[in-house]
Amino acid sequence: MRKFSPRTRQGTPNSTTAAVKNWMPKGFRPTTLLVEYLVQGGGGGGSNGVNGVNYGSGGAGGVSKSGTFTLQKAAYTITVGGGGAAAFGTSSAGTSSIVSGTGISTVTATAGNGTTTGRTGGSNADYNGATGTTGFQGGGGAGAGGDGGPSGVKINGGPGVSSSITGTSVGRGGGGVSGSSGNGGNGTATDGGGSGANGGPGTTNSGGGGGGGDPITGSNGNGGSGIVIVRWLTADATFFTITGGTETTSGSYTIRSFTSSGSLTIA
C-alpha cells in the first residue's frame, strides 16, 4: 500500500505582503477591511468678556470619538469640522467631524461650543465649562475629556483625550483657557486648547477650544479645526486599492489622515 505523504508549505506566515499572498487560499480575495478610527470635532471660539467686569472665557474643545469599523469596497464620506470664530460678543461653535458610508453606523464627533461675554466657559456634548469665581476671572472651556477648570482651577480649560493612532501619543480637544485669573496669573493650556491672556487659538487639527481674551486689547482665540484619522494593518490591505487623505506608516500599520473633508475609497 502506498503511504500517504501530506504536502507541507515551506516557511511560516509573517506580516509581509508576499507571505500574505502565499498563505491565502487560491482564489481567495477579502471583501472587507477592519479599520481603527479617530474622529475629532472642531473647537469653539473664545470671547473677550466685559471691560471692568470680567476677562473672556474659553471655548470648548470638540468631542473625540474612537473605535473600529469594518469597511467594504465603497467610498466613505469624511467631513472634517472647522474651528469656531472668536468674538467680542458671543463666540461661535465649531463644526462636527463625521464619517459615513456603506455598511457602517455614522460616526459623529460633535463640535465644542463658543461662549458668551460672561464668566462661564463653553461646553460640549459631554462636559461643561467652568465659571470664574474670583476677581475678574472668566471660565475655562470644557474639554473632550473633562469639565473646564479641573482640579479647582476655574480658569483652566478642560483636559482633552490622548490617542496613539498615529504611532505617537497626541492630546486633542482641550478646552480654551480664560483670559486671566484677575490677579495677573494665567491658566495652563493643554491638548490643543488655546492659551489665555492674549487669547491664543486652539491648535489646528486638534479640535481645541479658543482662549479667552482681554476686553481692552480685544484679543481672543478661534477654535482649532478637527481631524479624522484611520489606520489598518498593512498586511490586511494587500488586495485593496485605497485612496484619500495623507498616508503615513507606523510599525505594521498604514495610516490615512484627513485635515480637510474628502473621501476614503476602498476598491
Q: In words, what does this structure look like?
A:
- This protein has one domain.
- The strands form four sheets. It has a five-stranded antiparallel β-sheet, with no helix packed on it.
- The model is unreliable at 1-23 (pLDDT under 50).
- The protein starts with 16 loop residues before the first helix and ends with a strand.
- The longest helix is centred in the N-terminal third of the chain and has 7 residues, at 17-23.
- It has 267 residues and is mainly β.
- 3% of the residues lie in helices and 24% in strands.
Features:
single chain; about 270 residues; mainly beta; 5-stranded antiparallel sheet; 14 strands
Number of domains: 1
Structural class: mainly beta
Strand arrangement in the largest pleated sheet: 4-1-10-13-12
Helical fraction equals under 10%
Main sheet?
Answer: 5 strands, antiparallel
The shape is elongated
The unreliable regions are 1-23
Average pLDDT, rounded to a whole number, is 88
In DSSP terms (H or I, runs of 4 or more residues), the helix count works out at 1
Portion of residues in beta strands equals 15-25%
Number of strands: 14
Radius of gyration: 23 Å
Order of helices and strands: HEEEEEEEEEEEEEE
Distance between the termini: 51 Å
What's this model, at a glance?
The chain is mainly beta and 267 residues long.
Write the layout of secondary structure elements.
Layout: H1 17-23, E1 32-40, E2 49-50, E3 54-55, E4 64-72, E5 75-79, E6 97-100, E7 107-109, E8 161-163, E9 170-172, E10 227-233, E11 242-243, E12 246-250, E13 253-258, E14 262-266
Antiparallel strand pairs: 1-4, 1-10, 2-3, 5-6, 5-14, 6-7, 8-9, 10-13, 11-14, 12-13
